[in-house]
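Example 9 (inverse folding). The structure is encoded as follows.
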């Protein structure tokens, strides 16, 4: 029932769309569908499954996320980031275990969405985001180099030679030139679509001998059919598929939400992270029951769509339905499309995706941020997106903690009679700053009475509380009186025996709680 209002809103938006925008959406969707075919086939081969398993995934994931996702204009389908994880499962246990894993993956993603955990993607720092974009651009570029190679009799690959390489480069260059020049003349039709048709026309008219989509695989098939995964329904099966499902769910959501944020920046609009998590999960559940390999957002196809002018859900729906029509009715025609045309389109996607301003930014930002961009880019290329983002967040967190730890400081002064010294603290007292906090005080040389004023400071965690306890112990050993001023009630009551040192001012004391409290007793409020 809850889907009906959303579908109604989509239809209302469709009828309000102008004719030129509707034309743009339809043509952009067709362009995306053409580019999806070789990608889906290639990723199916990577995962060790039949081409139709990848094509069905691209159709079903693309359609469901376009209808119900949180980011209009974003394209989802079978991706390489997921395929490289799937290959070990398929090789060891077979494709039916993959389908079961994809269903469980979808359930996990829906749980993430229901708990609204998609908002945590905002924790990804800008240098990590920039490294992610650049890394994926390089990955897309490297993937296209396979089109310049041919398989050898021993199963390996070798580069095209002589006239074959020259022809391939010429056709790729023609496609790229059309995409670059056409928008300067007209934006009535998407330039990538014109490039694909133009290169195909040149090949056909001149009778050129070049590789086409049909050389990859036969894409003809029927409608996907519902079937439960043929696996034993027991704990042993769950033990096998659960680790893969967790990894796939994480990779899928990370890539989808980062792509969503990138499109947000380009279009200056805002998608809905948790809604996208729910849609991705639902799409993968359906895909697993209909013989697909699962998927997530595709940055390359999304960039084709956005650069073609698409901004609504219609383009994604058209792309999915066009892909299904290729499978059912148009396989013979689609298989004639030269791979050079699609390679040229993807090369232009690389050029448009790579954040070229990185080279300017790296000269202006701190060295730690510049190194973070390089590390995330490198890990994305060498390993995969999920590992790169995790590594980036960890490194960024360490850098941030180090910077914050250097912010704690204190101004001190003595009373006129010299019997009282006041320390006025600034900055956070936390796990990373406790050592510097300790160095701010001199118990041995301080007078008999000391005030530590935290009005302009904050105690962030239990490490900070322990630092206050340690400070009180130092002054107690010296036989001196220490008073804590400006602490929140939550912080004060966690000082244990030293709570009596806190001087309260209910009107002016801050009202914050601790971020972390592992020893929080039952019923006591936990910090935010």
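The amino acid assigned to each position is listed next.
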């Amino acid at each position: 029932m809850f889907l009906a209002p959303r579908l109604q809103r989509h239809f209302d938006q469709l009828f309000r769309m102008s004719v030129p925008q509707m034309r743009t959406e339809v043509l952009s969707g067709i362009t995306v569908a053409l580019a999806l075919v070789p990608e889906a086939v290639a990723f199916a081969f990577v995962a060790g499954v039949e081409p139709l398993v990848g094509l069905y995934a691209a159709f079903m994931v693309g359609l469901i996320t376009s209808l119900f996702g949180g980011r209009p204009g974003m394209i989802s389908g079978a991706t390489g980031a997921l395929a490289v994880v799937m290959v070990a499962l398929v090789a060891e246990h077979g494709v039916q275990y993959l389908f079961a894993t994809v269903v469980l993956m979808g359930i996990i993603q829906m749980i993430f969405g229901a708990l609204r955990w998609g908002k945590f993607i905002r924790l990804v720092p800008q240098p990590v985001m920039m490294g992610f974009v650049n890394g994926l651009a390089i990955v897309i570029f490297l993937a296209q180099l396979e089109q310049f190679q041919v398989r050898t009799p021993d199963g390996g690959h070798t580069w095209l030679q002589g006239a074959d390489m020259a022809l391939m480069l010429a056709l790729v260059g023609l496609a790229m030139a059309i995409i670059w020049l056409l928008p300067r003349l007209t934006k009535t039709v998407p330039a990538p679509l014109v490039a694909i048709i133009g290169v195909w026309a040149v090949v056909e008219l001149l009778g050129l001998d070049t590789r086409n989509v049909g050389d990859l695989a036969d894409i003809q098939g029927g409608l996907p059919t519902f079937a439960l995964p043929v696996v034993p329904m027991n704990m042993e099966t769950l033990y096998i598929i659960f680790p893969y499902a967790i990894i796939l769910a994480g990779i899928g959501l990370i890539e989808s939400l980062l792509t969503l944020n990138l499109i947000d920046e380009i279009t200056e609009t805002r998608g809905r992270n948790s809604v996208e998590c729910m849609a991705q999960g639902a799409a993968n559940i359906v895909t697993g029951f209909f013989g697909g390999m699962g998927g997530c957002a595709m940055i390359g196809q999304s960039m084709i769509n956005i650069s073609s002018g698409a901004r609504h859900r219609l383009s994604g729906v058209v792309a999915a339905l066009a892909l299904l029509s290729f499978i059912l009715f148009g396989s013979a025609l689609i298989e004639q499309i030269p791979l050079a045309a699609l390679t040229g389109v993807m090369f232009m996607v690389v050029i448009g995706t790579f954040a070229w301003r990185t080279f300017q930014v790296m000269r202006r930002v701190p060295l730690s941020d510049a190194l973070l961009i390089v590390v995330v880019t490198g890990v994305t290329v060498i390993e995969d997106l999920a590992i790169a983002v995790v590594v980036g967040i960890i490194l960024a967190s360490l850098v941030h903690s180090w910077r914050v730890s250097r912010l704690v400081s204190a101004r001190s002064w003595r009373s006129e009679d010299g019997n009282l010294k006041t320390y006025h603290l600034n900055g956070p007292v936390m796990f990373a700053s406790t050592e510097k906090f300790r160095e701010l005080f001199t118990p041995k040389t301080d007078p008999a009475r000391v005030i530590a004023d935290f009005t302009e400071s904050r105690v962030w965690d239990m490490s900070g509380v322990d630092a206050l306890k340690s400070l009180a112990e130092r002054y107690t050993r010296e036989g001196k009186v220490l008073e804590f001023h400006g602490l929140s009630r939550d912080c004060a009551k966690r000082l244990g025996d030293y709570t009596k040192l806190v001087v309260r001012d209910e009107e002016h004391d801050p009202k914050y709680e601790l971020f972390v409290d592992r020893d929080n007793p039952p019923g006591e409020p936990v910090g935010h």
